[in-house]
Design a protein that fits this description.
Length: 142
């Protein structure tokens, strides 16, 4: 017996809010920097800045773009005051963290306070993100 092909109607018109767009655009900029650093490490065979590369790619691209997608799907959370606080904490802390970590790895120990403070700010950003999602994820409104 031959199986007949069935057409399953699929809703292709789902629209996401543009709330998360700025997060995704910044994320892809971090990805360009992170990948550029990776290529430089590979070409020079000097892997000293490996943790900088990993943090730019994972916090800058993966985490940032995922936050953007989450805020696009849940614009109520994306438009909240907590999202604004999260945005600034994430985007102020990461460049400082990347530069101070690079300085420490290349021998400038004086950069340690900047690294500690930027790491704390980054963690605060993640905590803000978590609180925002727990408070505002229920209210999906396109
Ligand atoms: C063209 C793109 C990329 C290039 C050329 C590249 C290059 C490199 C190189 C040369 C290393 C060091 C390997 C070693 O020490 O043996 C490395 C490590 C690593 N990369 Fe990439 N990478 C790329 C993209 C990415 C992306 C997109 C991510 C994450 C989203 C990522 C995450 C990591 C992590 C987690 C490590 C290990 C860090 C560590 O051990 O401290 N990389 N990469």
């Amino acid at each position: 017996m031959q199986a007949t092909q069935q057409t399953i109607p699929v809703q292709l018109t789902t629209r996401f809010s543009s709330t998360g767009a700025i997060w995704i655009k910044l994320g892809v900029l971090y990805l360009l920097v992170g990948v550029g650093l990776g290529i430089m490490m590979g070409a020079s065979e000097d892997f000293t800045l490996r943790p900088v590369h990993a943090h730019i790619n994972l916090l800058g691209w993966a985490t940032m773009a995922l936050a953007g997608l989450t805020y696009a799907v849940f614009p109520e959370a994306g438009r909240s005051k907590l999202a604004q606080i999260h945005f600034w904490l994430a985007n102020v802390s990461l460049p400082v963290m990347a530069v101070s970590l690079a300085l420490i790895l290349t021998g400038t120990r004086q950069a340690l306070p900047a690294l500690v403070i930027s790491e704390m700010l980054a963690a605060l950003g993640i905590i803000t993100f978590a609180i925002n999602l727990f408070l505002n994820l229920g209210n999906r409104q396109a």
